[in-house]
Amino acid sequence: QKEVEQNSGPLSVPEGAIASLNCTYSDRGSQSFFWYRQYSGKSPELIMFIYSNGDKEDGRFTAQLNKASQYVSLLIRDSQPSDSATYLCAVNRRNNDMRFGAGTRLTVKP
Amino acid sequence: DTEVTQTPKHLVMGMTNKKSLKCEQHMGHRAMYWYKQKAKKPPELMFVYSYEKLSINESVPSRFSPECPNSSLLNLHLHALQPEDSALYLCASSWQGENTGELFFGEGSRLTVL
What we know:
heterodimer, A: mainly beta, B: mainly beta
């Protein structure tokens, strides 16, 4: 079982729609959870982080965490073509041991 | 502009060369990382330094040798690499402690081994 699993996509949504990205993790001791966006040829940049069960909203982005189900998700509302990128789920297992999922490639079509 | 600076941005080396990648941060972070990323793959953790001590070593081949001279600097020494080591090498830093872990990435050093 992979430590962090994501659907690789590609996920295609029309402009203005909601994009839903999912991630599961295997280590129940994981403490913090992150979504990074990575454009082709660039380094990852942080979009959201979440530490507690429930929802966390920041602008058009909402992160959801369910530790019992070991599940993290990211919703992007009013998707824009500029949101087209690979989205990486990352899990901090403990002591700075940060692991990444394979990433979901998102395409937002105008 | 990134607050984590990596040099060089591009490096081409032969299999018998010795070279180094350098990383610097001035955010006061006490954890620094090296990740390796191949095309269309996620970053893979190589090494983590915490308070200048190696805390995670992901069984990386000995041809990669990390060094953390102080809390702001992280080097990756390269020797006798193989063509399959060609990749983007990402340095990152973060705060130390529980419920932390936001990684601040440098722009990466793209390595090509001939």
